[in-house]
Amino acid sequence: MKVLIQDFLLMLQFFTRLPINLNLTCEKENFKRGTMFFPLIGLTTGFIQWITYFLAIKVLPDSTTALFVLLIGILVTGALHIDGLGDVFDGFFAFKGKDKIIEIMKDSRIGTYSCIAIIMDLAFRYNSYINLINKEFSLGIIAAPVVARTIFVLLFYMGKQAKKVGTGNLFIGNVSKKELVVSCLLGAVITGLLLGLTKALVITAAAVIATLLFNKYCEGKIGGLTGDTLGANNEFVEVITLILAYSIKL
């Protein structure tokens, strides 16, 4: 049990900016076991955003509350996945071949496509938060990161490594059926409790389809997945979940 708790904390250290100042073991096996807790990483992020909404909406207008929810999400994650989204758009729209695409994705500078992608991502999120607040489907704020982090594990399981060396390789191809099943069951339970079974099933199906298509697209462009493409998929799935959470009437 102690090892599992440490692996969960390791994932929190890795994927959030929460102040967990512990010296934890960082072997490949720790990252493998840690993937089982990805839905809980999403739950932690989403819950912090939801608490922000719950407190802010009492004294602030909907639009300002939505901005704070958006900002808190960025601060908690350190914009890790948004950065990946921007890098992917810069690289994939370069039309230069696999090696050049990966080189562009590694560049710390951002280009036009990256700027557009990030702006649109934030705009969709902001609009979705306002709609969730107005329609009183606020638990979608929590559900979005839960679904996205659960889908991460599916990508780890079925994806191929596009690079020989990279942060994403700590996870890509480093997941067995055990971790996949545990994370999916955990994610399904949490999402079902938040959104209701029917809506959760529809959203999960949409997220899986989008992820399968994106994975296939990545294989065609660069031969597999990198940390940046993982981050981009996270943003796609979160936005899809947010939109469907308020637009589906069940």
Automatic annotation (TrEMBL):
Its EC number is 2.7.8.26. It is found in: Cell membrane. Coiled coil: none annotated. The chain crosses the membrane at residues 37-60, 66-89, 110-127, 139-159, 180-213. InterPro entries: CobS (IPR003805). Pfam families: CobS (PF02654). It catalyses: alpha-ribazole 5'-phosphate + adenosylcob(III)inamide-GDP = adenosylcob(III)alamin 5'-phosphate + GMP + H(+); alpha-ribazole + adenosylcob(III)inamide-GDP = adenosylcob(III)alamin + GMP + H(+). Keywords: Cell membrane, Cobalamin biosynthesis, Magnesium, Membrane, Transferase, Transmembrane, Transmembrane helix. GO terms for cellular component: plasma membrane. GO terms for biological process: cobalamin biosynthetic process. Its cofactor is Mg(2+). Pathway: Cofactor biosynthesis; adenosylcobalamin biosynthesis; adenosylcobalamin from cob(II)yrinate a,c-diamide: step 7/7. GO terms for molecular function: adenosylcobinamide-GDP ribazoletransferase activity; cobalamin 5'-phosphate synthase activity. It is an enzyme of class 2 (transferase). It is a multi-pass membrane protein. PANTHER family: ADENOSYLCOBINAMIDE-GDP RIBAZOLETRANSFERASE. Belongs to the CobS family. NCBIfam families: cobS (TIGR00317). Joins adenosylcobinamide-GDP and alpha-ribazole to generate adenosylcobalamin (Ado-cobalamin). Also synthesizes adenosylcobalamin 5'-phosphate from adenosylcobinamide-GDP and alpha-ribazole 5'-phosphate. This is Adenosylcobinamide-GDP ribazoletransferase. The gene is cobS.
